[in-house]
Design brief:
Largest sheet: 4 strands, mixed
Oligomer: single chain
Shape: globular
Strand content: 5-15%
Distance between the termini: 37 Å
Structural class: alpha+beta
Length: about 160
Amino acid sequence: MTDPINRTGLKPRFWERKPLAKMNQQEWEALCDGCGKCCLNKLEDEDSGDVALTRIACRLLDDDSCRCAQYDVRHQFVPDCIVLKPDNLDSHAYWMPETCAYRLLWQGKPLYDWHPLISGTPGSVHDAGVSVRGITLSEFDIPEDEWEEYIIEEPT
């Protein structure tokens, strides 16, 4: 017997049975929980390699939805925005948020209960207090040499 298909058209809990590298584009995109943390500017310690989040958001982050306001054409505005793919996770997962589904699955860990694929509710990431909704500042308003003053702990 096969799993029923839910209202998104995706099989329930597909991420538990399908490796990241075998996911189609719809499945891959559905893993994003909409927290917005990947769109925060980060600072990497040159000596330790540790990555710190700042409250300074990419110019394209919609603070209310915690999604990219120009996702499909973001590279026209932010050429160095990284396109996370199964074949580049090894080199990029370290800077992804600790709660990120891509990072968790890459590490062999389960998704959190608040993840929209589990809760069935897109707003559950905000309800759980895991998103950056309401805490960001625009990268246009804060000079880059002051970003260190805006380092935050990751909402988890």
